[in-house]
Specification:
Length: 573
């Protein structure tokens, strides 16, 4: 839900904070007052294009900030934010700044973000319909999603996306192997030479570190022998050794303890010290006996470490990189020597994956075709309520067979069909709004007002199935009046039970259904023009609707009609 929208120095708006609420939020005002400016500002924080001209005259920059309460959408948005940096919370604060110099910056929860991320977030939060971006229904690629929402194909689509993703990986591997065919023939000899070069040394994991340790010992063997001999002598083997001194002291303290028991606690420590000295002396003695003074071994280790370091210089700087290179050469040589076998095995996997994807694509297609007629029927009925009485709405589900050269296919009922992440179907909405006309593609023939009503009909049918929390309608009342306007208002009110609705209207019959009502006015003061947006009280709402009925001069009859409309009892054309 959009909790608030802060706009500063944007177009004709100097500074305003708009607090929206649940349900149906209606915006009214005279033509030219600036109602659409607010929607343009909203579009800006949803990833819309920024224009320097939108910065208010005399200001350094324009700022638009929206606060969204995520609710059930938190997990979906959190997953998107987790990949891109900003922290997720129950509230999402999106801010966009446009400077008079042309720079544009975007922030989510005070973290700078890219415009692409802003658009992704916006597409999950708001569907904006009118003369603006986010008109999802005008993008044919979105039609399949609406049909799938109605047909409840979610689980099938996820399974297909998973299987088709695996198929695409296999196809990519196939292309890579085929691309390598000639390259492998040319490079096999090179790989074999490099492999022989490594295997002539045959280094083992961690061997370089072990050699360095051994060399350090061998190069210092004489010093190690001298030091260990001296230490052994002082600890145990000298005329006056530590062992002898502690042993003598222990005997004396034992004698003292027989006279004075206060010395007894000292005995275990001295006995332990004596055992420690003996143990250390034994270890040093064994170490001294094992010291290798062999110059030949020293030289051999130096030469081997030098050979390993040469390999490290050639193949990545570390022994791990050398061993990884060896595995790569082995793999490439095996692929070159057994190319046909590898390709045959991969082709079998691809054929199996095409069949598996084809079965899921067929299930998806059957479910879509089974539900498309009912979706069309319900939308036609809803369009009739919204003033398009002679409307005809069709959902066309088609498939495209692949040619022999196309590798991007699934096998469905023995046919090779092109596919994408949604299956092997292409879905497109067709519409005619006048009797006797053949339905034509919606994206090409519908007017702005018709688009809004088609989307309103579609959203009303889908209702709780659509997860986008905020729907914005501009010009939903274009070309209608009277009883149809009341039907449109009722549809918006009903839809607001599932989504937060923000709608601009000129018609009192629609405005009367509002849960929250805003009035947009343009004020000229001291030679400057500014737009103000006011949230109306219940009494002000009556007056605003009366203005829509009678014009600038509010009459008692208009007031009465406004109250009747709000109460649901009045209707006029």
């Amino acid at each position: 839900m959009l909790s608030s929208l802060y706009i500063k120095d944007y177009a004709l708006i100097k500074e305003v904070t708009i607090h929206f609420g649940k349900g149906l939020n209606i915006i009214t005002g005279e033509t030219g007052a600036g109602k659409s400016i607010m929607l343009d500002a909203l579009g800006l924080i949803l990833g819309g294009r920024a224009y320097v001209e939108s910065v208010r005259n005399g200001a350094a920059k324009a700022v638009v900030e929206g606060v969204f309460y995520l609710g059930e959408e938190r997990d979906r948005i959190a997953a998107l934010l987790l990949e891109n940096g900003p922290d997720a919370a129950d509230e999402l604060i999106i801010r966009r700044e446009v400077s008079v110099k042309g720079a544009s910056r975007a922030f989510v929860n005070d973290t700078p973000v890219s415009l692409n991320l802003l658009k992704e977030i916006g597409d999950r939060l708001v569907d904006l319909h009118g003369q603006h971006e986010h008109q999802a229904i005008l993008h044919q690629e979105n039609h399949i999603g609406y049909l799938d929402s109605f047909a409840k194909t979610g689980d099938l689509r996820e399974r297909f996306a998973e299987e088709s993703g695996r198929l695409l990986e296999l196809i990519a591997s196939q292309k890579e192997i085929e691309r390598k065919r000639e390259e492998l023939k040319e490079k096999r000899e090179y790989y074999a030479f490099r492999l022989k070069e490594i295997d002539s040394v045959a280094p083992q994991p961690g061997e370089d570190q072990e050699l360095e340790r051994e060399l350090n010992i061998l190069e210092n063997a004489e010093k190690l022998l001298s030091l260990s001999s001296e230490a052994f002598t002082k600890l145990y083997d000298g005329e006056v050794s530590a062992y002898d001194l502690v042993s003598s002291a222990l005997k004396e303290i034992e004698a003292l303890a027989k006279i004075d028991p206060g010395f007894v606690p000292l005995l275990p420590d001295l006995e332990g010290a004596l055992a420690g000295i003996r143990g250390s002396a034994d270890t040093i003695r064994d170490y001294r006996h094992n010291i290798d003074l062999d110059p030949a071994k020293l030289e051999a280790n130096r030469e081997r470490l030098l050979a390993i370091n040469r390999l490290k210089q050639k193949f990545g700087g570390s022994l791990e990189a050398v061993l990884e290179a060896r595995e790569k050469f082995l793999t490439e040589i095996d692929l070159a020597d057994n190319f046909a076998q590898h390709l045959s095995e991969l082709n079998k996997e691809i054929a199996q994956a095409r069949e598996a994807c084809g079965k899921l694509a067929l299930e998806l297609s059957e479910k879509r075709r089974k539900n498309k007629g009912e979706l069309s029927k319900q939308i036609v009925a809803k369009l009739a309520e919204l003033g398009i009485k002679s409307g005809n709405f069709e959902v066309k589900v088609t498939q495209e067979e692949a040619n022999e050269k196309d590798n991007h296919t699934v096998v469905c009922n023995g046919k090779n069909l092109k596919f994408n992440k949604d299956g092997a179907d292409t879905v497109e909405f067709y519409i005619s709004t006048n009797a006797g006309e053949e339905p034509k593609p919606l994206v090409k023939v519908a007017s702005g007002g018709e688009i809004s009503r088609v989307m309103l009909a579609l959203k009303s049918v889908l209702a709780g199935m659509d997860r986008i929390p905020v729907l914005v309608f501009d010009e939903v009342d274009n070309g209608i009046s009277g009883r149809i306007a009341q039907k449109v208002g009722g549809a918006l009110k009903s839809l607001s039970g599932f989504h937060q609705i923000i709608a601009i209207t000129h018609l009192p019959q629609i405005a009367a259904f509002s849960d929250i009502h805003f009035s947009v006015v343009k004020i000229e003061k001291d030679g400057a023009t500014s737009t103000h947006i006011n949230r109306l009280s219940a009494a002000d709402k009556v007056n605003e609707i009366a203005k829509l009925i009678s014009g600038s001069e509010v009459t008692d009859a208009a007031i009465k009609s406004a109250r009747e409309l709000i109460d649901g009892g009045g209707l006029f054309d």
